[in-house]
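Re: that chain you flagged

S.,

Sorry for the slow reply, it's been a week of failed gels. I finally had a moment to sit down with the sequence you sent. For the record, here it is as I used it:
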Amino acid sequence: MLTVILMAASCEKEELNYSQGDLKLKIETGKGWNHDFPLFLGLSKKNPPQFAVWIEDTNGQYITTLYVSSKIATEGWIMNGGNRRKEALPYWCHQRGKQYADGLYLPTKDKPLTDGITGATPKSDKEMLVKLNTIFYPIIIKAEFNHSVDFNDFYTKDVPEGSQYYSGGKMGSGQPALVYSGILNSSTNKVTLKLIGHSSPDGSSGNLYPDLSEITTAREIVKQVVVETVIQ
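Prediction finished late last night. Pasting the structure tokens below so you have them in one place:
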């Protein structure tokens, strides 16, 4: 069994202490990281995205989650009106392959993910130290990012359910979650993840769609994601 021990620091906190074989995960935020989320009476607040980072083998089989933001890990949504937000990170959810009592692949309040791999989404750049008790290279590192209400000319809030652009309605995602990927092996100890596609807009499947021609501001959520094996 693979055990994950996670420590994290934002750019203004003290440095993390790395050891041989640790994974260093650094997320450099883009200008779209903090997004306006509507509240009431014309007011809004800046929200960071929901995201997950995980490991797969070279056959695309899920191994373990390195980090996932707490709202989706604990069903901690506010103002969701009972919507489980299956459109938030559907690729990660389906890759995990754990189905819950309501038929969805999202963690629930009753059965959340363990605290060791979850946390509040940071407001700025984030660096994480991941200690793995055992790992066999090569591995694939994947990450998925998504904003609520990140609408554009294609993914609008009034798209009818059943349309290819439907993403949860007026409080849904807008643009679908974006997926990044990179291979880390024993000879190449550092990789910058590449954008490889977007998830199912309405969250109904774990499909990955490589056509990004209708994605606009969602590309600006992250500037880059770099994963490195520590060699001392």
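What I noticed first: The helical segments are 70-74, 90-96.

Talk soon,
D.
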